[in-house]
Design brief:
Elements (H helix, E strand, L loop, with lengths): L6 E6 L3 H8 L6 E3 L8 E3 L16 E2 L7 H10 L4 E5 L10 H24 L10 E5 L8 H12 L4 E6 L14 H10 L2 E4 L13 H6 L3 H21 L2 H4 L5 E3 L6 H15 L1 E4 L2 E4 L5 H7 L1 E4 L5 H10 L7 E2 L18 H13 L4 H15 L4
Parallel strand pairs: 1-5, 5-6, 6-7, 7-8, 8-9, 9-12, 12-13
Antiparallel strand pairs: 2-3, 3-4, 10-11
Length: 380
Amino acid sequence: MSDPLIVDIHTHVYPPSYIDMLRARNKVPYIHDASDGGPPRLIILSSDDDSNIPLDQRGRPVDSSYSDIKVKLDFMEKHGIDCSVISLANPWLDFIGEEQASEWAQKINDDLESTCSQVNGATEHKGRLPPLFAFGTLPLGAPQQVAVADEVHRISALSHIRGVIMGTTGRGNGLDDPELDVVWGALQDTQLMLFLHPHYGLPDEAFGGPEIVRRYGHVLPLALGFPLETTIAITRMYLSGVFDRFPKLRILLAHSGGTLPFLAGRIESCIAHERTFQVNGGDIPGPQRSIWEVLKTNIYLDAVAYGTAGLKAAVEAGGGSADRLLFGTDHPFFPPLNEKDEKWTSVTTNYKAISASFSEDQDAVVGVLGGNAVRILNLK
């Protein structure tokens, strides 16, 4: 039996033009070239941009793995990954103003398409998958959301784009913002996957204040803030009836859906007891479809959970089958702690968790590692 296909659907890249744009900025997000000769620092979280932290120590160091596609391909080969669906990392284009949003979205998306085309054209596939596909990005800052919908339709015709990546704030008002309906409609019409990814986390006060957050580095914002941010965003979409209006919308949730698999039953119960919601003094009905139905028909989860408990919850939330779960690495984030390590612990941990979670179902392992992605994203 040949080795299973391995497809990484959660892997990021900052195109060089995006890096240059960040380097020219002096407020979050920005890149700071360390004065001590050390590696550049990427400051993308507001909590990192703290005057109490020396500038050369803010954020995280960035190297060529963030922007050089050759480094990405080396990483794939080292970890046995056949195909990656690359996407721009947070904060995407959320900070770009109205005048430049569409221009930058088209540039980034064309760069992603060109990169995939060049790499795939120069690679011997040996009967397996081409190595690169991509999730595009959207000009959410555009003054009219019709421009966003137009970009969705434009990139749907590109050969290597299989979806779009988006943060949890949309246009700044959350994903229950009625202005986003035109975007949801375009995604449903084209059947491009929406990869929903966190960035903003929770307010420092949720963890005890800025001093507590600084004390524990990125652990509280990333380990707790990101999953809860995702859960809140998708729940607001659900409560506002997005999945009633767009029943064929497809969404891939990062980090195994945050806490949604664990809290879906509680959300359903609270909705039932709330009965109706108050908006501008009037009663409106809650969502018409069960959250369990939405989980089984509209939502997919990546397998970036780092443990069996999270993966098993993700499977149960999706109806008990692993056919909606997709492997990911979150590269280039969470690199090895020891420079001598050849393999990334963050990646091997996910491999081990998948193997342990489905130890008695080899078909499920094959599906999660790559077969599901091939089918769901039509990777050919």
